[in-house]
Amino acid sequence: MNFFKFLRKQASKFKKTIVFPEVAFSDRVMKAVIYLKKHKICDVILIGDESSLIMQNKDLKDYRILNPKTFEKTAEMTDELYNARKHKGLTAAEAKELILDPFYFATMLVKLGYADGMVAGAEVPTAKTFRPALQLLKENEFVSSFMLIVGKNKLTDNPFALADCGLVVDPTSDELCSIAERTAYEYSRLTKNVPKVAFLSYSTTGSSKGVSVEKVKSAYDKFARLHNDIDAQGEVQLDCALLENVAKTKLGDNAKYYGKNNVLIFPDLNSANICYKAISYFGKLCAVGPIAVGFAKPVNDLSRGATVEDIINLTAITVLQCKEKQ
Question: Which residues pair with 291 in a beta bridge?
Fold first, then answer.
């Protein structure tokens, strides 16, 4: 079975509700939510003016559409937003204005349990999607993300996970270790594959020196101590992580296994973000995400180049994250 068909089928079992704050100004999101509801992958909540949306598409007349200006729970949500952020200087008047923002409104719906998760970002920068969630749904010390790369290529038909491609700009060695832990776990849970982790660098086991190399090496060393049940290599170059013949040449007897890594941990956001876009556009592979890890409830971001298929697939993943949180 096609990997994404498998994810959609799994998601349809759980009857979760996902909120979409962009449907009023995104044709792609509108097409995606119609597909999601028709194929019963999830229930949906749309943010916008009901009459305006139904004029745009009559198929939406049976959908749950919430307008922040008229929703009966907006006052309650405003109070909750104010209480959650007043220690950061948010005033009651500012909370009344902020709740009308579709992204804050959608995030509060998730926080208060009216929705199980949120998908956004098709029309706005990543910060617009994640800022409310980072303020209101942050569960761990920091939130990270990964991209799921899917499609046939010269190496394997199995999916890859790349991290962190969307949130942590310059992770410390400890944060890199945590990013690897989270990504390996989510990769295993979503794909049912055994994770094999590579901590990537421009150096392979001491072939070069530098601050970045030392950071990656330290992250790998900590990960190896904590997770000796997970195959991992570090620090290694990308070709060494993926190609068995290169790994044998560079690592010799020092490798636990040779190449074939499927969870790739990058030293910083620059390299990760550039790599995933190069892979998806030059290699014509499907890149889904960023998939966030570390929120109390699932909120995921779309690339502004996302297709309708990408939106559907990320939503299925978000549903499965809701099931995990439950």
Answer: 146
